[in-house]
Amino acid sequence: MDPSEEETAPHRIDIFMMSVKCGNCDKYQTVVDFKKSGDKNVYTYECDWDASPGCDPNVTRTIVEVPKHLDNSTRRHEEVSYPEAPESSAPK
Ligand SMILES: [Zn+2]
Questions:
Q1: Distance (Å, rounded) from C-alpha 45 to C-alpha 22?
Q2: Is the torsion defined by CA of 14, 49, 85, 81 positive or negative?
Q3: d(CA 24, CA 56)
Q4: In 3D, which of 7, 9, 1, 73 has the Cα closest to residue 40?
Q5: Which of 11, 18, 76, 91 has the fewest CB atoms inside 10 Å of its own CB, making it the most exposed?
Q6: Cα 12 to ligand 1 centroid, rounded to whole Å
Q7: Which is more confident, 92 or 34?
Q8: How far, CA to CA in Å, does 24 sit from each of 43, 55, 59, 62?
Q9: 34: alpha, beta or left, given left = phi > 0 and alpha = psi -120 to 50?
Q10: Are 42 and 64 in contact (CB under 8 A)?
Q11: pLDDT in tens, 27-37
Q12: Separation of CA 58 and ligand 1 centre (Å)
C-alpha cells in the first residue's frame, strides 16, 4: 500500500468542474456572484432568466460555500468580470 499518490494530489474544489441544477425548473444555474467570506469563498447561483423566465431567483437561488484553502476556482473567478453593479467604483 502506497498512499503517496493521494498525498501528492490534495483535494481541490473547482466549481467550474461542477454544475448546479435547479430543483425547481430542472435547468442549470449559472454563477452570478462571488465573494470572500472569512475562510470561505461564497458563490451564488441563479437560474438563467432566458432559459427559465418562470423561475424566481429569490426562491431558487443557490449559495455554494467552498473552503478557501480547497478552492481551485478563485484565480479564474477573479479574472471574470460580472455584469452586476460594482460595490463602489468611485475611488476616494
Ligand atoms: Zn430554476
A1: 9
A2: positive
A3: 10
A4: 73
A5: 91
A6: 28
A7: 34
A8: 19, 7, 9, 12
A9: beta
A10: yes
A11: 999 999 999 99
A12: 10
In three-state secondary structure terms, 7 is helix
Q: How many Å apart are CA 27 and CA 50, to the nearest integer?
A: 11
Cell 431558487: give the residue.
60
Say what the alpha-carbon torsion angle 51, 61, 77, 88 is, to the nearest 10 degrees.
110
Q: How many residues does the chain have?
A: 92
- What is the Å distance from ligand 1's center to 15 Cα? 19
Q: What is the CA(50)–ligand 1 centre distance, in A?
A: 11
Q: What is the pTM of this model?
A: 0.68
Write out the residues surrounding ion ligand 1, Cβ under 5 A: 22, 24-25, 47, 52, 55, 60
Cell matching residue 48: 438563467
Where along the chain do its domains lie?
11-79
